[in-house]
Request: fold
Amino acid sequence: MRPLRKNVLQEANWGIFLALCLALFGIFNYLTYRHYHRWDLTSSRSFTLSGQTRKVLGDLKAPLNVVVFIAPGDELYQRVKDLLSAYQDASKKVHVDYIDTDRDPARVQMLAKKYKVQVANVVVFDTGENSRYVEKDQMVDYDFAAMQFGGQPKVKAFKAEEAFTNAILNSLDPKKPVVLFTSGHGERGGGQKGEGTAVLRDRLAKEGAQVRDWESLGKSDVPKDCDLLVVAGPQKPFLPQEAAVIGSYLAGGGKALLLLGPELTEGAKAFGDTGLEGLLTTWGLALGRDIVIDPKATVPYLGAQTFFAANFAESPIVKDLAQNKLPVLFTLSQSLKTQNPSDSAYRAEPLVRTTGESWGEKDLLHLDDVKKDPDDTPGPLTVAASVSSDKADKKARLVVFGDSDWASDALIQTGGGNLLMALNSVHWLLSQENRIAIPPKSAVETHLNLTGSQSNVLFILFTVGLPGAVVLAGVWVYLRRRR
Reply:
């Protein structure tokens, strides 16, 4: 009887143990379902949403329908799916529908007609009243270097989060801001190959802005529908009447982005005037009339006047650049000086500064062999500054750069933070801080490089050592049982 009773008790104990295990398993699954959390362990934080995106999703008042027109076999399908999954985790109002463009052509055609989509590989964001779609080229940057040897382009950076979040914002607020680029003074236009601002203009247009040129000569005022005025690298000075018109526009609460690189007068080694010096003084800024040299941050083989700047101020314009350690590439820049604006309600503040070893070169006769002289402007130097006010009735905003090359087509996508700097400046000027550009997620490839001896050790360990250990353990267990 005792052995039987002992067996019954043992079986009961095992039954209770299994029941407790099942109960714990059920409780654990229930808690993970109710309190779901994702961890992003990637080095580039590829699956972590920015603070801007989380804020936008948290402010959603109505359901947001997302329709993905990307085939499952596409290289971006899984990355887009993972990103949109993070959007759904951040807000229960986000609903995602994946359309297989290969297997369901009838539904693709119906939804494409509904959302007015005429291209493949797009993601649509529908708020009910408005919809916007993001194309594939807005989601990713490619590296085409391998194509020279017959290879395929590789994904260099995944920038879909910025495009998706801005598409949501454009759907929620469909108003299209008007951005005017001044012309008539040799400014960087939209069609000058390498020297123009076509990349910036195209990016603003894709975000919903109306981008137009505006010739200021002979005009009595800036167009009333202008939300932002851009002066991009004038080579000839503005007339006093033109400067007065721009000044009146700012005094009335206007917004302006001025890219004022140093211009040398023809036939002489001297700095030319922009015609906007008086306007800048009114707003607490002054041009250094020098050429910034920063030996500590210079770019090899490109001259002492080409340098990276990564000393950022505490401003929403450069906050993301500072957090992600993205420098801005400048070339042939002059310094800026900040002072008190005429209206004490405003303040002028540096945005980007050089290192302490920099200086502003005044000697234009020996630019091929620059050296720091007593007359030069000592560093650190300000190369970008902003003007704004905390008072609600003072709406004017101004961002000024001592260089215009950094925003040109040749450099705006070369420097680590050039494009982000340009977009952040525009968004801030338009009072669209929630649209501050989001840095792309770089595609990081991790390689394991082993020497010949290391490879041999790993081969012996995994093909001989571990299987041999298992066999020896089995033999030992067998011999123990035979005893």
Remarks:
- The chain has two domains: 51-165, 176-439.
- DSSP finds twelve helices and 22 strands in the chain.
